[in-house]
Design a protein that fits this description.
Blueprint lengths: L11 H8 L5 H12 L8 E3 L3 E2 L9 E2 L2 E5 L4 E7 L6 H14 L14 E7 L10 E8 L8 E13 L13 H11 L12 H15 L1 H46 L5
Parallel strand pairs: 5-6, 6-8
Antiparallel strand pairs: 1-4, 2-3, 4-5, 7-8
Length: about 260
């Protein structure tokens, strides 16, 4: 498209550059409205800092992809997840806790805590569910007397699995959601009418510019190498952990066998 090898918006650096810049707030608003589908309808956003430093010596610092506050005060965190680590629920819970930890001031009632919506767009499968978009809220479980029901929607969490987009019946998804997810998944395959949407054209123009800029490509390539190093390191440590666990298990089994009292 346009004679340029487009960078993938599914890369976290590219994604944050497209949707997390102050000059592209309306592109982010359009993406959010496509996902939230009017619940709530967002008119504007204010981008917020994405780095949360640790609050104790042994704490954990985090850097988020995109954080914004909407016109109604809702805090929105949008993450692109390049690899499946099997810990998305734990990470999302930790991120949401950090996001709301400093929002309640002294003397304020707990009802003053703003709503938080976290959206995780996943390049690889993350769940065993069949659909591509899942919303999670606090729920009351069935206790045998009361039915399953929503306890609170103060903290909503979306998991979007791009690999399941085509397999999900179109009747379950709105058109804007489908076209934005297809753009993030593979911008080369989006239909021409995407460019008739002002925000879609803005996103494509910016992606085309980024893709033709040598400095941006250099940063992208460096990020890809960094991610490959991180995930290959995790895989190596995982395999090493399994091997070490097997060795310990074998040694303990031998020890238990040698110390056992057998009755014949």
């Amino acid at each position: 498209m346009r004679g340029v090898d487009l960078l993938p918006p599914s890369n976290d650096y590219v994604f944050a550059s497209l949707f997390g810049k102050k000059s592209h707030e309306r592109v982010l608003v359009c993406l959010l409205n496509a996902i939230l589908n009017g619940k709530p309808s967002i008119k504007s956003v204010k981008l917020e800092p994405t780095e949360y430093k640790k609050t104790s010596i042994d704490g954990k610092s985090i850097r988020l992809d995109i954080v914004a506050t909407s016109d109604d005060g809702t805090i929105l965190n949008v993450e692109i997840q390049c690899k499946c680590n099997g810990n998305i629920e734990d990470r999302a819970s930790f991120y949401k806790a950090r996001l709301r930890s400093d929002k309640l001031k002294e003397g304020e009632d707990y009802t003053s805590i703003p709503d938080i919506i976290s959206i995780w767009i996943c390049v690889e499968p993350e769940t065993q569910r069949k659909g591509c978009c899942h919303e999670i809220v606090d729920m009351y479980k069935d206790n045998g007397i009361d039915p399953i029901e929503i306890a609170s929607e103060k903290m909503r969490h979306f998991i979007i699995e791009l690999t399941k987009l085509e397999a999900t019946p179109k009747s379950f998804l709105n058109d804007m959601f489908t076209i934005w997810m297809q753009f993030i998944k593979d911008p080369e395959t989006i239909p021409p009418e995407f460019l008739d949407i002002p925000e879609g054209k803005e996103a494509m123009d910016e992606l085309t510019y980024m893709s033709s800029d040598p400095e941006t490509r250099a940063v992208y390539d460096a990020r890809v190498r960094e991610l490959n190093d991180i995930y290959s390191g995790q895989t190596t440590r995982y395999k090493e952990g399994l091997e070490e666990g097997e060795k310990i298990g074998i040694e303990k089994s031998k020890e238990a066998f040698n110390n056992a009292d057998f009755v014949i």
